Please model this.
Amino acid sequence: MVRPWLHDLLLCLMKRFVDLLLALLLLALLSPLMLIAALLVRLESAGPVLTRPHRVGRNGRMVKVFEFRSAHAEPDAMETVGGCQGEEVTRIGAVLRRLGIGRWPLLLTVLRGDLSMVGPRAELPRYVGCYPTAMRKLVLSVKPGLVDLASIEFRHEQKMLASLEGEALEEAYVEQVLPMRLEYAKRYIENQSLLTDVRILLRAAVAPFLPEKAA
Model:
């Protein structure tokens, strides 16, 4: 019988191997489109092609992730679920956000080891502070990921919250969306395995082709 600590170690090593393999494969396949996206971002407006917003990683460690720059914002603008306050989304940025291309550089963060392909959402620091204590300890005990069950179920999150802004948007996310995200994260952590990861990745692959759920 495999000891629990040995099982966890083997799972961690295999998960890291799969992360590296998939990240390298996807970067190789997507690199032509990413180069075009980077060129369009650079030609449309001055500024860096990539941004590095902060997210909360495993054990509460702050990590910087890679995303295509999609908006102009003040350096000290506060980032929220609805975007940075006072940001001005560029034309190319709006397209990148709508198609999900803006998040493709997150694969670089997977290569670096700060994110996994599958795992709970890498959340903004301001919202991690809203986690119940026990849930915070559980969710931050694992490496966050690019996709999980919640990211599939809430793939139209921006559209769901589009009619809200300011305090109403914050309240809706913290009181309605966030608790459900945490429940999905808890379910994943309690049942995590390579088979679970494969199932989630397959669901994420076909999700864009599925019809939207009725509100």
Remarks:
- The chain has nine helices and ten strands.
- The chain has one domain: 10-209.
- Strands lie at 50-51, 54-56, 62-64, 67-68, 71-72, 79-80, 83-84, 88-89, 116-118, 145-147.
- Residues 10-209 form one domain.
